[in-house]
């Protein structure tokens, strides 16, 4: 069995059949990380010793026949999830020495299900970015071509899975940070309904938008991971108290009769023609599977980026106020007084993009501008939500591109922030509405992966994953791997 | 749209945000902020009168729990991340002269 790009589902079987041990599998990935990550920079920290110890315990469980669903499966975790006793940096100098005093609920749930954490993956600082170039620990390189960005902010998680350095990974998505890197690295990435997965222990960027989710090779793998990440958590007051379905069951059911909304606002100027071609071909595959395509409009989509770049920075400016250089995090040297300590610690500890967003958020919340910016953005957010509510009266799933282009060269958009922000033009509206959305591989454009975005109604991750799985039964795009040269 | 942030506003925003005002970077920062605010300005063209703001995407109330201690975190584990912590105290520069 070739372990490099095996699916989580195949690895579960191989472990159960004792075709491979958890220790062998963990060592296999650690060896690949050693060999390939100097090129990719997808990990901020690797916990080899702890992972091998956990693998040893997993093998004991297999020997005793006392296994759990993910026993022995090595995964990577975005370095935004607190893991007790381990460095948790959020990609920032501010937290470069931070040792988490507790473990994030969703990481704890994955560990409880038996998953082994290999290490923490690189990311845009505090999850702010679409290219993973905003990390204090350096840019991440795309395994399909190391000259290209992997997408962001969960770029390290995407690159690590795509390069076969782990079986799957966790990510977080505030405006597209799971879906866009999944698209650019040829993976399946899911942002669940807002509140489906606890945010406790996940370092906050924009609390009304942040949502964790799985990044995997297939919809089936993502479904299995979601089952073990989701669920009500009294420690997160926005966590939904809803039953967690067995998402991995029912994936094989036919999608004949599924109504797929094709949103016309997702096919406008700025969409790369090669990406559009792949998406149109993917839609034709759905028709051949018995789905019906329905032309729909989400009329407020053009306002989503502008509303997002008020709401997210406003929440970020409030959330990041906690970093003051006193209780934890970076402190400047020789502060003259308390004010100097605050300002220089934050000035030296945060990167440029983070500081810019804090200032934009501070502006939007300041007296005289609050109504014209923050309140207005929240009203537009309601309009965007209403668009989805109306659309889902007529369709079951909405489909379109995840990102307007395939992966682009490192540095290409670094000096053009607005062009970078427009990378998330198709993903942001689902984040603002809080509906679940995912990206699945749907073709190649100039030899690079293209992501098809599927958006579902509230709490309807099941049908979304079913639609994704059925597409993956009919196509091979999800099984493509980066070129041998890597 | 005209530039919304000028040097004076930037100084005020920096103070509010507890960030240093760096004169040598002020032009670049102003350009960057005004570029984002110009993008954001696109939302001004939409009529949102009679629309209620939406804060929680699912419009659910945050769940409440009893005001009781449910777990404690070891102070030593928390304080190990503090830049300057001694004898149970977080140290800061002298505040009162």
Write the SSE topology.
The complex is a heterodimer of chains A (486) and B (97).
Chain A: H1 8-16, H2 22-40, E1 43-46, H3 48-64, E2 74-78, H4 105-112, E3 116-121, H5 155-162, E4 168-173, H6 179-185, E5 188-191, E6 211-216, H7 219-229, E7 259-263, H8 273-288, E8 292-296, H9 304-319, H10 338-349, H11 352-365, H12 371-391, E9 397-401, H13 417-421, H14 428-433, E10 437-445, E11 448-456, H15 461-474
Parallel strand pairs in A: 2-3, 2-4, 7-8, 7-9
Antiparallel strand pairs in A: 1-3, 4-6, 5-6, 5-10, 9-11, 10-11
Helix pairs in contact in A: 2-3, 5-6, 7-15, 9-11, 9-12
Chain B: H1 7-16, H2 26-40, H3 75-79, E1 85-86, E2 89-90
Antiparallel strand pairs in B: 1-2
What does this structure look like?
The complex is a heterodimer of chains A (486) and B (97). With 486 residues, chain A is α/β, with parallel strands linked by helices. Helix content of chain A is 38%, strand content 13%. Chain A is built from 15 helices and eleven strands. In chain A, helix 8 (273-288) links the parallel strand 7 (259-263) and strand 8 (292-296). The mean pLDDT of chain A is 97. Chain B is mainly α and 97 residues long. Chain B has a domain at 7-45. The longest helix of chain B is centred in the middle third of the chain and has 15 residues, at 26-40. Chain B is flat, with a radius of gyration of 22 Å. Classes of the chains: A alpha/beta (486), B mainly alpha (97).
Features:
heterodimer, A: 486 residues, alpha/beta, Amidase signature (AS) enzymes, eleven-stranded mixed beta sheet, 15 helices, 11 strands, 13% strand, globular, B: 97 residues, mainly alpha, two-stranded antiparallel ribbon, 3 helices, 2 strands, flat
At a glance:
Chain A has 486 residues and is of the alpha/beta class. Chain A has a domain at 8-259: Amidase signature (AS) enzymes (Alpha-Beta Complex).
């Amino acid at each position: 069995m070739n372990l490099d790009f095996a699916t989580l589902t195949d690895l579960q079987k191989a472990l159960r059949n004792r075709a491979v041990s958890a220790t062998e599998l963990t060592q296999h990935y650690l060896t690949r990380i050693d060999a390939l990550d100097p090129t990719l920079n997808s990990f901020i920290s690797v916990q080899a010793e702890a992972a091998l110890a956990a693998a040893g315990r997993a093998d004991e469980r297999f020997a005793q026949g006392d296994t759990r669903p993910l026993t022995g499966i090595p995964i990577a975790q975005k370095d935004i999830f607190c893991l007790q006793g381990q460095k948790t940096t959020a990609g920032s100098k501010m937290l470069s020495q931070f040792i988490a005093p507790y473990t994030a609920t969703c990481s704890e749930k994955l560990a409880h299900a038996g998953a082994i954490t290999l290490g923490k993956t690189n990311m845009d600082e505090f999850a702010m970015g679409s290219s993973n170039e905003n990390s204090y620990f350096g840019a991440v390189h795309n395994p399909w071509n190391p000259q290209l960005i992997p997408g962001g902010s969960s770029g390290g998680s995407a690159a690590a899975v795509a390069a076969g350095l782990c079986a799957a990974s966790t990510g977080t998505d505030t405006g597209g940070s799971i879906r866009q890197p999944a698209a650019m690295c040829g993976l399946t990435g899911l942002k669940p309904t807002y509140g489906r997965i606890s945010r406790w222990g996940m370092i906050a960027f924009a609390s009304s938008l942040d949502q964790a989710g799985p990044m995997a090779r297939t919809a089936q793998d993502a479904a299995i991971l979601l089952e073990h990440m989701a669920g009500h958590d009294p420690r997160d007051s926005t966590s939904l108290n809803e039953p967690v379905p067995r998402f991995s069951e029912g994936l094989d059911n036919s999608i004949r009769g599924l109504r797929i909304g094709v949103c016309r606002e997702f096919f406008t100027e700025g969409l790369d023609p090669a990406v559009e071609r792949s998406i149109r071909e993917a839609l034709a595959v759905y028709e051949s599977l018995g789905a019906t395509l329905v032309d729909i409009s989400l009329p407020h989509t053009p306002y989503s980026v502008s509303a997002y770049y008020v709401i997210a920075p406003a929440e970020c400016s409030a959330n990041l106020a906690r970093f003051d250089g006193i209780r934890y995090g970076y402190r400047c040297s020789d502060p003259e007084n308390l004010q100097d300590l605050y300002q220089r610690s934050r000035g030296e500890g945060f990167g440029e993009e983070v500081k810019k967003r804090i200032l934009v958020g501070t502006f939007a919340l300041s007296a005289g501008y609050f109504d014209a910016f923050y309140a207005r953005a929240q009203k537009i957010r309601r309009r965007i939500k209403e668009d989805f509510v109306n659309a889902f009266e007529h369709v079951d799933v909405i489909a379109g591109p995840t990102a307007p282009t395939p992966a682009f060269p490192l540095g290409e958009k670094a000096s053009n922030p607005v062009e970078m922000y427009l990378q998330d033009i198709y993903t942001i509206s689902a984040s603002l509405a809080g509906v679940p959305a995912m990206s699945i591989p749907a073709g190649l454009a100039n030899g690079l992966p293209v992501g098809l975005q599927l958006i579902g109604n509230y709490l309807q991750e099941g049908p979304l994953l079913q639609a994704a799985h059925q597409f993956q039964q009919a196509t091979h795009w999800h099984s493509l791997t980066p070129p041998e040269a890597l | 749209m005209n530039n919304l942030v000028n040097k004076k506003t930037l100084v005020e925003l920096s103070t509010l945000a507890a960030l240093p005002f760096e004169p040598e970077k002020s032009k670049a920062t102003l350009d960057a902020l005004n570029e984002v605010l110009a993008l954001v300005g696109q939302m001004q063209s939409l009529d949102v009168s009679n629309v209620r703001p939406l804060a929680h995407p699912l419009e659910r109330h945050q769940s409440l729990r009893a005001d009781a201690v449910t777990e404690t975190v070891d102070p030593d584990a928390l304080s190990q991340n503090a830049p300057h912590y001694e004898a149970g105290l977080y140290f800061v520069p002298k505040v009162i002269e």
